[in-house]
Specification:
59 residues; alpha+beta; three-stranded antiparallel sheet; ribosome biogenesis; Ribosome biogenesis protein Nop10; rRNA processing
Length: 59
């Protein structure tokens, strides 16, 4: 899934809320933007168990 709406890739350091735009760079801080669409969900994901386990093990 691909979206035309982009969000600033560096929101924690500069912004107090997400900045959305249609361009390739943030209009506030001029940082590059990234796709705002969520990753597709696949119920047959073979590696989902390992990814969830790795996420739990992080401090």
């Amino acid at each position: 899934m691909r979206s035309d709406i982009h969000v600033c890739s560096d929101p924690e350091n500069v912004h107090d809320r997400p900045v959305y735009t249609l361009g390739d760079s943030c209009p506030v801080c001029d940082a590059p933007t990234e796709n705002s669409a969520p990753a597709p969900f696949d119920p047959t994901d073979r590696y989902g168990e390992y990814r969830r386990r790795a996420r739990r093990d992080r401090p």
